[in-house]
Amino acid sequence: MKLTVLTPLKKLVENIEVDEVFTPGVEGTLDVFPHHANFLTELETGVLKWRQGEKWSVAAMSFGWLEVFDENITVLADVAELSDKIDLTRAQAAEASAKAKLQEGGLDDSAFRKTELKLQRAMARQEASH
Asked: Which of 16, 68, 108, 110 is the most buried if burial means most Cβ atoms within 10 Å?
């Protein structure tokens, strides 16, 4: 299978051979193996993983779409970052800031949702960096 991961600003990976892909689906983690049925689905903020032989690669991603078509897997993400590019200290600070805002309360629905998404992204970045 070939994997491509794209964001509006960059190509994270393009047409690399993979043996397995885990993605954060809206209803749980999706595991894609060779000869998987073709499909298109929405993705949540979380950790994207792929295996090439025995080697695993990891990226944090924020919302997107997954298409599996004829042994080609394409992930279109709003934001995606390879694990070795993640600033762990910055991700931890973002998590602490978002948690503090949520605990303060007084946020309208829009601000609450934005802060909640920031928290999810910070947590995904930390998980991907390990």
From this structure: 68
Cα 125 from chain centre: 9
Residues whose CB falls within 8 Å of the CB of residue 85, separated by 6 or more in sequence, listed in order: none
Per DSSP bridges, beta strands 2-6 and 72-82 are parallel
Cβ-based neighbours of 69, under 8 Å, separated by 6 or more? 38
Give pLDDT tens digits for 73-103: 999 999 999 999 999 999 999 999 999 999 9
| Integer CA distances (angstroms), 110 to 22, 114, 120, in order | 30, 6, 15
Domains of the chain: 2-84 (2.60.15.10), 86-129 (1.20.5)
Report the candidate in 123, 22, 88, 120 with the shortest Cα–Cα distance to residue 5: 22
Q: How far is residue 9's CA from residue 100's CA, in Å, rounded to a whole number?
A: 30
Q: Does the structure show a pLDDT above 90 at 130?
A: no
Q: Which two tokens stand for residue 97?
A: 């800031």
Q: In residues, how long is the chain?
A: 130
